[in-house]
Amino acid sequence: MGKQKLWWENIPAQIGGDLNSINVGTIGGGARNVNIAAGQNIQQTIQDILGAPTPDDKKTIEKQVADLNSALDKLRGQVDANTAKMAEFQIKLLGGELTKTDEKETPSATTITSVGDWLMDNVPQIAEAVVGLFATPAVGKVIGKAGEVAIKWVRQRFGGANAPA
Asked: Could you please report the per-residue DSSP string of 97-152?
């Protein structure tokens, strides 16, 4: 029996849609740091693979974030106190973005990827818990909402069949 594929391994390499027909819109005067998925069918592709969002997704993600905090707590005394404190803050920030499960909420790809990188680079002892969090299908749905940048980051950071060489 083979290993089950991770959600990001099931997404086609190009999910950005027809780049020759990118939709352009005005967000508002002076808008900055807005995450926009340039392309079509990103959210639909994620839903086709992982299913539509459910009311339980947020609880599932909250449990995974709690597991990540528990993994960090087990390192008390083994990790520099300042690093541990910063990791607590980063996990809280990540949890805030990943629990944006309501259709009216848009998670920040920049925050998700920056925090994910920080945790993996600065507290590698919890890497397994970080990967476990991102491998959760409910988190995959949020990553899909965050857009193509976040999906590409997951593939590059955690690997997979469609990860760039």
From this structure: HHT--STT----HHHHHHHHHHHHHH-GGGHHHHHHHHHSHHHHHHHHHH-HHHHH
Residues 134, 142: Cα–Cα separation, whole Å: 10
User: In a 10 Å sphere around its CB, with 0-12 CB exposed, 13-18 middle and 19+ buried, how is residue 123 labelled?
Assistant: buried
- DSSP, collapsed to helix, strand or coil, labels residue 79 as strand
The single-letter DSSP state of residue 12 is: -
Query: For 72-95, how does the pLDDT look when each residue is reduced to its tens digit (9 = 90+)?
Result: 999 989 999 999 999 999 999 999
**pLDDT tens column, 10-59:** 777 655 443 333 333 334 444 443 333 444 445 556 777 788 888 899 99
Smallest CA-to-CA distance from 122 within 69, 80, 77, 154 is with 80
Q: Are 62 and 95 in contact (CB under 8 A)?
A: yes
| pTM for this entry | 0.76
